[in-house]
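Quick one: structure tokens for this chain, please?
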Amino acid sequence: MESDRSALSRSHLNNHNFSKITFLGVHRMASYRLFEDEEHAKVYTKYRPPYPKALYDEIENYCKGLSENDLDLAIDVGCGSGQSTLPLTKFCKHVIGIDISNEQILQARKSATNIDFRVGSAEDLSSQGDGTVDLVTVGTAIHWLDRSIFMKEVERVLRPGGVLAVYTYGLDILHNKEAHGLVWEDLYKKTLQDCNPGPHIHIINGLSLIELPFKDSIRLEPLLVEREVDVDFYIGFIRSWSPWQLFEKKNPKTDILTVLAQRLKALYKDSVSNDVHQISLTSTTYALLGRK
């Protein structure tokens, strides 16, 4: 029987212990290129979850809060296949999505025709003039960027009153404790330990080590969303992780995810009907908002 979901979620947020993870070093480089092959882009598009509506409500309200920001132009950098970009069209007149991966941009262009998706670097926004952008967003990508260069570009392109929004998925909390242990303790912390790129520390720490270059900035309370997903879909989500992609390249014949799927299905199998129930989990989103 599952524990109380809310209590378990809060407990995990407060008590995640990742001190035993060995990171490869926290580098500020523009050369992390882990999402570029066609197959990974397709997996990323299919299995990455959307960000919560509450996040975009917070961004919109912050933009309009203390300045006359008409949200004419928004740029989503490190946009991947467009999960973080598409919701911006609901309150921004013009939206540009930029990603270093051509394959990700090809996938993104299939999701929307009213967004200008471009291949490019987040650290080079030279296509935009000084003070011409109302909103810059970075969804689960800030940890890959050379933040010093990127922040200078953001300060340059944002108009006075323009906003930078930095946000990221956190680590999911599976409400079944045994299932949570299989995914996050055994797979993520142990099996994938040596394949965890150093920048992932910023996801694990909920952006707590990231600072925005503006005096007017806030750190939102974690946004929690309850979800239910099929086991096979969640395995697909794991396949989209950069640590898994690195591990699989080193171990192309591995059956670890096949075995994990079997064990999860056994845990979620109904003893009477033999139906496999969905995984019940809590997703967490962390966000920083700053105004120039």
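The chain is about 35% helix and 20% strand.
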